[in-house]
Amino acid sequence: MDHAADAMRTDLMTITRHVLNEQSKFPEARGDLTILLNNIVLGCKFVCSSVSKAGLAKLIGLAGETNVQGEEQKKLDVLSNDVFINALVSSGRTNVLVSEENEDAIFVEPSKRGRYCVVFDPLDGSSNIDCGVSIGTIFGIYMLKEGASGTVEDVLQPGTAMLAAGYCMYGSSCTLVLSTGAGVNGFTLDPSLGEFILTHPDIKIPKKGKIYSVNEGNAKHWDGPTTKYVENAKFPKDGSSPKSLRYIGSMVADVHRTLLYGGIFMYPGDKKSPKGKLRVLYEVFPMSFLVEQAGGQSFTGKQRVSAPTLLLIRVSKFCQLLNCLQSFSQHSCQL
Ligand SMILES: O=P(O)(O)OC[C@H]1O[C@](O)(COP(=O)(O)O)[C@@H](O)[C@@H]1O
């Protein structure tokens, strides 16, 4: 009888219990981060159930609106965005929110304000939403700068200033992967309990990976080093076996596989944005935080993504900032 497995099954490590254990190591912790994460988890459970019944609940298809990136919003994009904004505001722990689906930053009204800023992509992998392929939610958490009252400046922080980050993947199972700066852990939603249970403790990216993940359809837009790298992955000059190509087209799913199996995921550029289309603030920074916490690397092709030098610029209108941030995100992660 496998007592360890039995203990695992009866001594349930829920995500709340795990975060409380982690926070108990910090005497100054007041439970605010735990409450905030609990509300994010609630949002993930709601989106998970909506995604799994999308076809039945007529949640497939377009919402008839366009987001700040000029992309047509899917019904599930809008629903997920509303759910997360409400969950984050009602936690009473947030101050400034930045969503992929909103043109401007969201400033929480004073009576409900807290000291955290959350950047998030409510539903990543839009091109896969209507065909039932894995999609996900990505989030990153910052603390208000010392003495700050909550302005755009408080989200203009480098990736290294992030306190916690995570994603929730809505796939064959619903998996939430989280780091609060002390390693990376994966939790699977047990629908019968409605609880995320620890199933992937202390995720460490394998040192060697046999997989490369990139949209080769964009090859003609790539720079020299990227073209050379992918060429070598397919036709290794050192006689080793070629790498396998795996590309789902949902960053959450492609990064999740890379965290567990190793290898490389990158988004070098495409016709529309030759310098890459992944958004630094709520896609690249949170994923880079997780990749580095799991022992991997994340770089732009020229420098570490989360480097403090990457971000601190100030432009007039917030969405202008979003546009120029996009131009920075060339490559996603190097493993
Ligand atoms: O279809 P492409 O050009 O390869 O782009 C896929 C990439 O775009 C994204 O879908 C962008 O994210 P959104 O779906 O949130 O806009 C990533 O998840 C994915 O890695």
From TrEMBL:
GO function term, MF aspect, one: fructose 1,6-bisphosphate 1-phosphatase activity
GO cellular component, one term: cytoplasm
EC number: 3.1.3.11
Gene Ontology BP term (one): fructose 1,6-bisphosphate metabolic process
Domain Fructose-1-6-bisphosphatase class 1 C-terminal: 205-305
Ranges for domain Fructose-1-6-bisphosphatase class I N-terminal: 13-201
Keyword Hydrolase on entry: yes
Swiss-Prot/TrEMBL cofactor(s): Mg(2+)
Localization annotation: Cytoplasm
Catalytic activity entry: beta-D-fructose 1,6-bisphosphate + H2O = beta-D-fructose 6-phosphate + phosphate
Main localization, broad class: cytoplasm
Organism (species): Physcomitrium patens (Spreading-leaved earth moss)
Protein name, as recorded: Fructose-1,6-bisphosphatase, cytosolic
UniProt similarity note: Belongs to the FBPase class 1 family.
Alphabetical list of InterPro entries matching this protein: FBPase_C_dom, FBPase_class-1, FBPase_N, FBPtase, Fructose_bisphosphatase_AS
Keywords, comma-separated and alphabetical: Carbohydrate metabolism, Cytoplasm, Hydrolase, Magnesium, Metal-binding
